[in-house]
Amino acid sequence: MECYKAWYEVKMEYIVTYKGEQFTPLAPDINQIHIEDIAHSLSLLCRANGHIDYFFSVAQHSINCAVEAKARGFTARVQLACLIHDASEAYISDVTRPVKYYLNEYKEIESRLQNVIYTKYLGSPLPEDDYSLMNQIDNDMLINELSTLMSGKKIFESIPELKSTPSYKNRIQSETEAEFLKIYYGILHAGIIQGK
Question: What is the pLDDT of residues 16-50, one digit of tens each?
């Protein structure tokens, strides 16, 4: 009798995206990356590994970061970087920070994929100056989010001041997805470039 491996035992080289791409995260094809896949996936992924009071998506976080970048007067390029800074999570998910610290191979995969995404939508990997601006907003927003979304648990000694007023509303997924795309196309219209 011939033995067959169960589907879950078969080594898969690719994932199937929302738009139907057979996407290989370890060898990302820039032509298979679509902003619609990113917006859809991130709007369904929960921040903080789900350890918050209610569902708040990675897309909502990304939107808040882009809005904050605009409020700080940063360029359209940095605004777009803030919007897509977690886009790799649409293809490889995320790992909590205490664990990610020990996963050098994962961090290399994440960095390589994120650079392909930046190249598609910004024309190149993110330069250090832009990365620093984006990273500061990402961290400031993280502290504000967790301070708001974790029933008042005191996690941080101080909370950074923001120039914008982030929304922490519990939203319908499709609304978040649509807003993510609206901001993306708005930034392109305002003068950014490469993205399709």
Answer: 999 999 999 999 999 999 999 999 999 999 999 99
Residues 6+ apart with CB under 8 A from 114: 85, 87, 88
72 close to 163: Cβ distance less than 8 angstroms: yes
Output DSSP code: residue 138. H
CA angle 86, 131, 167 (to 5 degrees): 50
The β-bridge partners of 23 are 15
Distance of CA 150 to the CA centre of its chain: 20
Averaged over 102-112, what is the pLDDT? 97
In this structure, are residues 59 and 173 in contact, taking their beta carbons and an 8 Å threshold? no
Of 2 and 34, which is predicted with more confidence? 34
The DSSP bridge partners found for residue 15 are 23
The burial class, CB within 10 Å (0-12 / 13-18 / 19+), for 72 is middle
